[in-house]
Amino acid sequence: CPAGFHCSKGLRHRCPPGFYCPQKTGISFYPCPPGTYNPSYGLSHAERCQLCPAGASVPNPSGATNTSSGGPCPPGHFCPAGTSIPQPCPVGTYSDRLHNGQDSSCTECPPGQFCGSPGLTAPSGPCSPGYFCQPGSSSPSPPGVWQRGGPCPVSHFCPEGTSSPLPCRAGTYNNLSRQAACFPCAAGYFC
Question: Full-prediction pTM beyond 0.85?
């Protein structure tokens, strides 16, 4: 049986899309390797299977005839060229779009929100009261600025969903950290 064909019962058939058929292929032909596809009939070598383009994946190479058989890269993921399994957007990011080709296609979590797990299609939720969350935060209550946010400092307040600590207003004070509101100035005192 010549290369590019598979043979059975004395009949010769062109190798189908999604597969390759080296010389002497019988009734069992070979699927293109993971992360590749073949849209044509008669392919003879695995090296001629094409890489899936960025933003698409082919999760099951057997029978895969084009990138749409694996589908577009799903929301919450990215698919570099040659991907067979979509990769989740990293913690601190999300994506609500299809066809992301690289991790930079994932969107950094917005200020005042957190993205606490990989593969999100939307932020996990607002920052906790008494804390502030900067862009890319991965926790509702970050332990410090190096964590893209932190506890609300003294003389400030941080209601739910705060992106930067807010200074206490005139007539109020706060001598504690991690507060969602400032206290009214006591009678006989100036704030």
Answer: no
Tokens 């607002």 belong to 126
Domain with residue 26: its CATH number is 2.10.50
Please classify residue 10 by burial: count the beta carbons closer than 10 Å to its beta carbon, then call 0-12 exposed, 13-18 middle and 19+ buried: exposed
Would you say residue 21 lies in a domain?
yes
38: containing domain: 5-51
Q: Which of 96, 92, 95, 104 is nearest to 136 (CA)?
A: 92
Same domain, 36 and 84: no
The predicted pLDDT at position 145 comes to 60
Alpha helices in 53-139 (DSSP H): 67-70
In this prediction, residue 70 carries a pLDDT of 61
pLDDT tens, 4-23? 888 877 788 888 888 888 88
The number of folded domains in the chain is: 3
> Coil, strand, or helix at residue 68?
helix
Domain membership of residue 121 (yes or no) is no
- Look up residue 102 and give its amino acid: Q
Regarding whether 137 and 103 lie in a shared domain, the answer is no
57 plus 104 within the same structural domain: yes
Give percent of the chain with pLDDT exceeding 70: 90
Which residues touch 55 (CB under 8 Å, ≥6 apart)? 72, 73, 79, 98, 99, 100, 101
Contact between 38 and 49 under an 8 Å Cβ cutoff? The reply is yes
